[in-house]
Design brief:
The protein is about 60% helix and about 10% strand. It is of the alpha+beta class and about 375 residues long. It has two domains: about 210 residues, no CATH class; about 160 residues, no CATH class. The strands form two sheets. Strands 1-7-2-3-6 form a five-stranded mixed β-sheet. A two-stranded antiparallel sheet has the order 4-5. Strand 4 and strand 5 form a beta hairpin. The longest helix has about 40 residues. The two termini are about 60 Å apart. About 30% of the residues are buried.
Length: about 375
Amino acid sequence: MEQLREFGLLTATVATTLATYLLFSSFFPVVVQRLKKSKFFYLKGLHTFTFAQLHFRMNELKRILATVAMLIALSAGAISGGFAFLNNANPFTEEMNVYDVKVYDMSQEEKDLLAVIPFTDETTYRFKLDNNHIYFSATELNNDPPLIRSEIDYTLVHPKKMDEKADLELNDWGQQTLTDEWESAISTISPSVFLLTKIVPKSEFDRLPLTTHSMYLGKTDEFKKHKNTWAEIDQIQQKRYEEFGEDNYYYSSKYSMYQEYLGTASGTFFMGFFLGTAFLMMMASILMFKILSGAHQDIHRYESLRKIGVTHRTLSASVAKELGIVFLFPGILGIVHVLVGMNLFSFILIDPYYKLWVSILLFLAIYVLYYLITVSMYRKIVLPKT
């Protein structure tokens, strides 16, 4: 899926649906025939009658069973996908933002808010601003480089120290050509994406006749635990960033990105859970009513067995086995579709299998309930009264 991506989703949609219908048309009738060839199993009790009924029913219901299997996959997959998107909010923001909080020109109020948080990594950088540029001291950056995420293995690393002579030279457009690592580092600590960055020697930085500002960066191991603090910091920073003016103003933080993604994911989760549950109930209802609609044709068969001395209990067990196999085949195939198919979303979800057990348990609960209802109603129709 890392190579196929969107094309893989399209291919799987067509191929899996087609193969599911072919499977019920060709493979499962063969399975029933092979079971009938086992004399020890086939000639035991009412298995001869049960498998004759099953063979007839499989030919009648093969398209319905394939549809049920696909609906199981869609429903359980939709619920699992909703959980996975909801869970994806935190690792997504972790991947996009190395530091949990960035504070521009920290005030005493913000110091008090952050004082109680146990940071695992924190640092402060100085910079100066004019109308077009942000100035940083090369020496200060080299002495304490910020954390960045590696583009190779996504681990946290520090950029290699820059050569203050070679790396600070201007190109033909009058801009500094920095390495990818330092481009990422500067974007992390810069307060504005609209102003050009200039890294200068410390002596030149100190001589600039501009006001010195600061950017505090802090990282913790428990981002979600301190969401209330991040929200308060965001409110203060929002007002402070407005001093850049409408043309140069854009404020984004890890917390705001997390909230934005969480809002989208919550909607996806609700839709997935609602549609998944609806698909599950629709799927089980289709199978139940299809079986019951042909039940009246089987009444005379069970009456004949009762007349030759087959007990009510044995007939009842035969019904349970027959319908159990009918429900079992699409149930197994639907779950296999989900277990394998959730990997289709691995290129957009960090953990596509997050809480998959919830959707499987929900499916089993609804499926077993409909099976028991179907068996009970079927028995009332076909079994002779004792």
